Amino acid sequence: MSTSKIQGNSNKRLRNVTIVKPIIYGSYAVPLQKKLENGHTHRWTVFVRGVNGEDISTYIKKVVFRLHESFENPNRVVDSFPYEVSETGWGEFEILIKLYFQDPSEKHISFFHQLQLYPKDDTNLQGKKPVLSDHYDELVFHEPVQSMHKFLTTPSNISDNKPEYLINNYTEDREKMELQQIRKYQQKVLQEIEEYKRKNEILEQKIKSMPVTNT
Ligand code: SLL
To answer: For ligand 1, atom 6, which residue shows the shortest CA distance?
Structure first.
């Protein structure tokens, strides 16, 4: 698709240029020591950040987090770094996240994040451990206009204020869990390979025992 008819330098699309911006979005939740009078049981934060905690406001203008309607002003607009909202609450729900870019010609994008307050494996349910649920994703800007390209290539500062979930030392647990998961899948794949080998052998036997016919 050509947009070369568009006049003016800053609106010109840069042919054959693709810029990828890795981001992490998600939430972390900490159980409160004591249930609040309003029934709230957790303190949580939903966030969008760069992979290294860098200031992504070089190309992101604002982030809108749409919370459950039981919250006051459920549409939370965050127009400066860090892009996050902290609240207390009692329940899990889907949060709609909308990213707006510095260049107005770049359409905003929307996606959902499921707020997680409780660990997935029940054994931890009584524990006071924070629950992190985050996702890696990549924003792909294909042939961006010149002005957006400038925003995308502006060097960003790495923030000194590390978010709480990066300071808390529970990444080790997480790594262990991920490793377990990988081993489980490896096991499954090996089992499937064995199963196919077995089926293959049976088929080969059948073929061998078939009468040979001359055509
Ligand atoms: C559930 N479908 O039933 C979900 C809804 C709503 C959570 C969860 C705080 C509200 C307030 C809150 O945690 N809402 O401000 O009191 O689990």
So the answer is: 91
Distance 27 CA to ligand 1 centre (A): 15
Give Cα 149 to chain centroid, integer Å: 23
CA 56 to ligand 1 center in whole angstroms: 30
Cα 166 to Cα 18, 64, 95, 134: the distances in Å are 30, 23, 21, 12
**Which residues touch 45 (CB under 8 Å, ≥6 apart)?**
27, 28, 29, 84, 85, 86, 87, 163, 164, 165
Atom of ligand 1 nearest to the CA of 39: 16
Which residue has a Cα nearest atom 13 of ligand 1? Answer: 89
Listing DSSP states for 6-66 in one string gives S-SGGG-B-TT-EEEEEEEEEEEEEE-SS--TT---EEEEEEEEETT-B-GGGTEEEEEEE
18-161: CATH topology is: Immunoglobulin-like (2.60.40)
For the stretch 87-122, what's the b/e string if a residue is b when 16 or more beta carbons lie within 10 angstroms of its beta carbon?
A: bebeebeebebbbbbbbeebeeeeeebebbbebeee
Q: Where are the domains of the chain?
A: 18-161, 171-209
Question: pTM for the complete prediction?
Answer: 0.73
Give first-to-last CA distance, the chain, whole Å: 55
Q: Is the CB of 38 under 6 A from ligand 1?
A: yes
Question: Which tens digit of pLDDT belongs to each residue from 35-94?
Answer: 899 999 999 999 999 988 889 999 999 999 999 999 999 999 999 999 999 999 999 999
